[in-house]
Amino acid sequence: MSITRNISGKCPKCSGDLNIKIWDSVNAVYHPEEKEKIMKSELFKVECDSCGSEIALEYPCRYQDTDNHIMIYLIPDFSEDQVNELNDDLENISMPKMMEENKFRVVGNCDELIEKILIFGCDKRDRPIELCKKKVLKDLKIKDSNISPVAILYNHNSEGEYFSFIGCKDENGEVLKVPFDKELYKSLDIELVNRDAYKEGLYMVVDGSWASTLMKQ
Ligand SMILES: [Zn+2]
After folding, report:
1. pLDDT tens for residues 60-70?
2. Per-chain residues with Cβ under 5 A from ion ligand 1
């Protein structure tokens, strides 16, 4: 089940009263419509009845998709202590054997949550994806040393898979997109299998910092 509660707040634009629905947990199996709202960046928003402003909200939310063995905790600006606490809680419950293969992740914002759902939803692994991002950025920096994205996000649409370089523009002023290199992904995936880097069963952060640390080893 999904868990929700209502709180009241004030609109930052007009100070009008807001009735805000907080999603403490979203279950994609029982409530696929809520998953769709996450994917469209609509779930963590509230519209002000007085002035019509759309206000983005940030708060912790646990996303679970038991069919696909995914458990992702969205915690804005999370700390290492918070990740450790989640794992302490996990270790205090006796986990069924099947859950040991669950992909437990912690992400810091809604875009990263969407990205993880997309990656796992098309049967890919997030670890090689993070390594791909490093390689793609390195190649781009050779051509343009000033390139400095605030985030690189995996995405796909009807035309194929790509990385969005958030904060970087292409020649048309659109967000810079770089096609996803399937061969690179495959080779990095094999490398990680060989390094035995696919342990699951505890909450972990798989992001750019994770990739940088791994590359130094
Ligand atoms: Zn308002």
Report:
1. 999 999 888 99
2. 11, 13-14, 16, 48, 50-51, 53
